[in-house]
Amino acid sequence: MLFNSYQYLLILLPVSLAVYFILNKKKLTTASRVWLVLASLFFYCWWNVLYLPLMLGSILFNYVLGSALTTSAIARYKAREVNRRILLTIGVAANLGLLGYFKYADFFITNANSFFGADMGLLHLALPLGISFFTFTQIAYLVDSYRGDAKEYDPINYALFVTFFPHLIAGPIIHHKEMMPQFKAARSKVLNYKNISTGLFILSIGLFKKVVIADTFAVWATYGFDKATTLTLIEGWSAALSYTFQIYFDFSGYTDMAIGSALMFNIVLPPNFNSPYKATSVREFWRRWHMTLSRFLRDYVYIPLGGNRSGEARTCLNLVATFFLGGLWHGASWMFVVWGMLHGIALVAGRVWERTGLKLNQYIAWFLTFNFVCITWVFFRAKSGRDAEKVLKAMFGMNGYDPHASGKALAPICAALLLVILVRNSGELAKSFKPSLRTLAVAGCIAAYALLNMNRISDFLYFNF
Predict the structure, then answer these.
(1) Which of 143, 156, 135 is nearest to 69 (CA)?
(2) CA 47 to chain centre
(3) Is residue 285 part of a domain?
(4) pLDDT tens profile 234-257
(5) Cα 319 from chain centroid?
(6) Cβ–Cβ under 8 Å, residues 237 and 413
(7) Average pLDDT over residues 402-409
(8) Residues 41, 30: one domain?
(9) Per residue in 336-375, pLDDT tens?
């Protein structure tokens, strides 16, 4: 089920809220948690009920394994510690194996056929919705259980942790220790009108971002990347910048709707965006963009690889390796790998620059960072190397300049740039939010306008990852 659908906004969300708080008011707290799990599974099944057994099997497997890791942590004998490592290895490998089978099987078969001249048939597997996110969430849980940072003996609590519908499909990627204490807290079970109003406000902003802004830029991005056979200078930059703002408003809009929806249940999801296009370095960009993925890659890939503990050369190698895997995580395409590698190399270049002691003017640093991000998004969006080449050639003037080329996107692009640079982001607005007639009017207007424009329902981009 899509957040930007009438079924979610007018039925699932309000009904889930009403029943959840009614059950808690009657002191039926276990029933309220079961209700949220069922509502979340219904939310997931709306897309394709055939993948429900896959999710339930994944939840059961990881719950049993996490419980075993937690229980065995009581005894610290050397032999038991070896057993725990084996259990953790099995758990992580099984999760990655499941993800790899559905997400990368055809990718590897295609490349094997090309490299070895083979003729293996493709499996044509449909990617289960949200598998990357609920897999990463559960891998983090297993590692945290192994480290002693998480423990869960209640299967209902664990199922709720994984399936809670605001974060289920496309994040934010959460940790057990930051979520379950909130569900257990007494104050979370009581209707909080401040949280309801703030959640609706943030949800309205997210809906507007997606339906009105992102889906408008999608039209120009699709034309440039998928439909046009050749592009001139203006058209190339229009396509690249349109996608730059499409993916920002699409994913940040989804995150706003997720955070807003969860807040109405008195649950605070971790922030995922902090004005990333204000960054003055690639490192700062990754501290602001998809923050929970950056946190996961840091804690469960970069640091286990050695982080910055083994010298400068090894640190640089770890950065590139981490972003190679981060790029590949986004999808079975060499374009994602190229995108990830470019960001890894840029982070290494940033470290080298810092070692010189030189500093760029902040406006020049922002200009270089923003344009690097924009150019690398071309690889992220392109379906093939030829598509990327087509757009990049145009952007660098290799197809010439046509003063009569369509510039319809230029004014919206300028407006979007000013919006992301000058206006406070939704997280900042949430912190200062105070219910009033003025905020009610603003939220009501943007929500109504978005609802009236939902005739062109489209998926969120990160549903594909």
Answers:
(1) 143
(2) 19
(3) no
(4) 999 999 999 999 999 999 999 999
(5) 20
(6) no
(7) 71
(8) yes
(9) 999 999 999 999 999 999 888 888 999 999 999 999 999 9
For residue 390, the one-letter residue type is K
Listed in order, strand segments (DSSP E) in 184-283 are none
Residue 428 CA, chain-centre distance (Å), reads 19
Helix (H) or strand (E) holding 261: helix 233-264
CB 70 within 8 A of CB 152: yes
Query: Do 211 and 167 share a domain, yes or no?
Result: no
Compare 63 and 454 and report the one with higher pLDDT.
63
Residue span of the structural domain in which 409 resides: 194-280+360-464
Q: How confident is the model at residue 81 (pLDDT cuts 50, 70, 90)?
A: low
Q: Is the pLDDT of residue 403 over 90?
A: no
Q: Among all residues, which ones are annotated catalytic? A: 330
53: preceding bond cis by omega (within 30 degrees): no
Question: What's the angle, vertex CA 260, arms to CA 257 and CA 261, rounded to 5?
Answer: 80
408: its two tokens: 């319809």
Model pLDDT for residues 433-446, shown as the tens digit of each residue? 888 888 888 888 98
Confirm if 434 and 199 have CB atoms less than 8 A apart: no
216 lies in the same domain as 140: no
Residues in the chain: 465
| pLDDT for 77 | 47
Encoding tokens for residue 374?
């924009």
In this structure, are residues 141 and 66 in contact, taking their beta carbons and an 8 Å threshold?
yes
CA nearest to 152, candidates 130, 131, 189, 183? 183
